[in-house]
Amino acid sequence: MSDDFELDTDDLKRRMDGAIANLRTEFASLRTGRASGSMLEPIMVDAYGSQTPINQVGTVNVPEPRMVTINVWDKGLVGKVEKAIRESGLGINPQLNGTIIMLPIPELNEERRRELTKVAGNYAEHARVSIRNVRRDGMDQIKKAKSDGMSEDDQKFWEQEVQDLTDKYIKNVDEALENKQEEIMQV
Questions:
Q1: CATH classification of the domain holding 60
Q2: What is the pLDDT of residue 1?
Q3: Which residue, 19, 91, 109, 187, has most beta carbons within 10 Å?
Q4: How many domains does the chain have?
């Protein structure tokens, strides 16, 4: 192997890990019929002139398996939090009780479960695209090194390394998607 070229595989792994972590966060936001505070994480509220995560304007609790509550700290933000939840596409109808917003989690019907599996599939596809973009960056580095005098054997070795890494991460995405779709379809 060439002494002057060393592909930073740690950087590629770090970036691919980021795509997987983002996918897990998006999957956590998909409700599966059970109440979870994490389903509110992607929702942003227009508070004090900027977009703020919902957990930074109130306390999120899960007092029972089919209920999430948000105790909004600033009474003036209650309406904005309610509006953000309604517009989030979660399909939950917030109920107000002073500064507490209650979110009853309805049973998922078959149609809604199928919709959620499609959403999960879209999230997984975005993660695959991110991983492929990291792969492309790695391949571009290898091509540049080839034009700078890297041997063909070294080029093939590094391309195979990048491809193996990509395949491993794509497989992780596929497994995570399969698990999430199973969880969603579980009655």
A1: 3.30.1360.40
A2: 42
A3: 19
A4: 2
Residue 71 included in any domain: yes
Q: Provide the CATH number for the domain around residue 172.
A: 1.10.132.20
Provide, for the chain, the percentages of residues in helix, strand and coil under a 3-state DSSP scheme, each rounded to the nearest 5: 60, 15, 25
In sequence order, what are the residues at sequence separation of 6 or more whose Cβ sits closer than 8 angstroms to the Cβ of residue 90? 31, 39, 43
- 158 touches 8 (CB < 8 A): no
Residue with the bigger pLDDT between 119 and 164: it is 164
Question: 12-39, pLDDT tens digit by residue?
Answer: 999 999 999 999 888 877 766 667 777 7
Paired tokens of 114: 């199928």
Same domain, yes or no, for 96 and 145? no
Element (H, E) at 50: strand 50-53
Domain end among 61, 80, 104: 104
List the structure tokens of 49: 């002139």
| Dist. CA 129–CA 52, nearest whole Å | 27
Q: 159 by DSSP, 3-state: which?
A: helix
Q: Report pLDDT digits (tens) over 115-152.
A: 888 889 999 999 999 999 999 999 999 999 989 888 99
User: Residues 114, 162: one domain?
Assistant: yes
Longest CA span, the chain: 70
Left, alpha or beta for 89 (phi > 0: left; psi -120 to 50: alpha)?
left
